[in-house]
């Protein structure tokens, strides 16, 4: 287990040990929002604990963005209740604005404004804003202070959006599809920035349709499909619920009888595809398979080890993959 995974596991365990004592940053109960002919959000309920990164994961059109727009008061739900650190976004708009910073999926900034000018404009909206120089340093934008917004790369524009979400010193940051359209390196850099936001003491609600992003960052994840939450738990627990267990794929050095492995208690299935053998199972599957093969004089070459993922959980719960999107569906 790498350092980041260990840190996240420790943080998740702390939340579990705290039980009901941990403060609730956000409580959503039976939220419903419809548009003509479409139910965008259907009876959604969840809580977000202070200090965690809470993920809302689902395909495009699942209702994720509509949900968070209701949370921050940009949309009015048809029914249900929302409590943001004790405030109702439909009634206490100023109080919610003061404690919530948001980076939304779509935003429009003047292309001919400089980065510093944009930050100064937004900090003027708050009574006790963050120091812009400190934010620029923390987000790697110091050298772009005088650059026009239109000249920035996609990753740099996302950093500016994150700076604007943090300039009011929020207690909660809502980040909607932060890494859409970014190249792999920019995505990884953005992930580190999001972890840095949490390390500053900010509770993060992360909206994404990227399974690997949710697995890497989130303490808990709500899987959303067609406006409803189909499951909510830690990424590890959700993957285990998928029943996919563990998988090991390899090329044997010599032919062997399938029963050599299928009769092992750790093995639940075996398939062959050309020269490759794919074994499904549980517990200490990998070591058991390799040692059993070695005992029979067979070497496992080109070994690939896989575990059940959030994608597996989503497929099991909904019958389709995360990226089977329909154009024009509600966000």
Q: How would you summarize what this structure contains?
A:
This protein is α/β, with parallel strands linked by helices and 331 residues long. The chain is built from twelve helices and 13 strands.
List the helices and strands and how they pair.
Layout: H1 3-18, E1 24-35, E2 38-49, E3 53-57, H2 64-71, E4 79-84, H3 93-99, E5 100-103, H4 115-123, H5 132-138, H6 154-166, E6 172-176, H7 184-199, E7 203-208, H8 211-217, E8 220-225, E9 228-233, H9 235-241, E10 246-252, H10 259-262, E11 267-273, E12 276-281, H11 285-295, E13 300-307, H12 310-318
Parallel strand pairs: 3-7, 3-8, 5-6, 6-7
Antiparallel strand pairs: 1-2, 1-4, 8-9, 10-12, 10-13, 11-12
List its salient traits:
disordered C terminus; four-stranded antiparallel beta sheet; 34% helix; Alpha-Beta Plaits; six-stranded mixed beta sheet; alpha/beta; 331 residues; single chain; 2 domains; Rossmann fold
Distance between the termini: 35 Å
> Mind summarizing the main beta sheet?
6 strands, mixed
CATH topology of the largest domain: Rossmann fold
Helix segment tally: 12
Give the structural class: alpha/beta
Average pLDDT, all residues: 87
CATH superfamily of the largest domain: P-loop containing nucleotide triphosphate hydrolases
Count of strand segments: 13
Radius of gyration: 23 Å
């Amino acid at each position: 287990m790498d350092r980041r995974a260990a840190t996240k596991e420790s943080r998740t365990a702390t939340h579990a040990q705290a039980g009901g004592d941990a403060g609730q940053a956000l409580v959503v109960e039976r939220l419903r929002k419809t548009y003509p002919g479409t139910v965008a959000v259907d009876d959604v309920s969840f809580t977000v604990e202070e200090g965690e990164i809470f993920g809302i994961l689902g395909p495009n059109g699942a209702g994720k963005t509509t949900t968070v727009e209701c949370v921050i008061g940009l949309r009015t739900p048809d029914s249900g209740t929302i409590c943001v650190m004790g405030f109702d976004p439909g009634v206490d708009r100023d109080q919610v604005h003061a404690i919530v910073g948001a980076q939304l999926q779509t935003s429009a900034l003047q292309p001919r404004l400089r980065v510093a000018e944009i930050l100064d404009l937004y900090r003027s909206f708050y009574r006790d804003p963050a120091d812009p120089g400190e934010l620029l340093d923390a987000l790697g934008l110091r050298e772009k202070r005088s650059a026009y917004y239109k000249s920035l790369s996609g990753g740099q524009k996302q950093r500016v959006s994150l700076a604007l979400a943090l300039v009011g010193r929020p207690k909660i940051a809502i980040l909607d599809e932060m890494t859409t359209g970014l190249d792999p390196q920019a995505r990884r850099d953005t992930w580190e920035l999001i972890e840095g936001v949490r390390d500053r003491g900010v509770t993060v609600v992360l909206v994404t349709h990227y399974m690997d992003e949710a697995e890497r960052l989130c303490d808990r994840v709500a899987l959303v499909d067609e406006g409803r939450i189909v499951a909510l738990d830690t990424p590890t627990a959700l993957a285990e619920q998928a029943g996919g267990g563990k998988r090991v794929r390899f090329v044997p050095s010599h032919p062997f009888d399938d029963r050599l492995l299928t009769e092992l208690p750790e093995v639940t299935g075996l398939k062959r595809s050309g020269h490759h053998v794919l074994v499904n199972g549980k517990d200490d599957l990998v070591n058991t398979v390799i040692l059993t093969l070695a005992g029979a004089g067979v070497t496992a070459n080109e070994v690939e080890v896989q575990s059940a993922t959030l994608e597996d959980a989503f497929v099991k719960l909904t019958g389709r993959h995360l990226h089977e999107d329909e154009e024009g569906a509600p966000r």
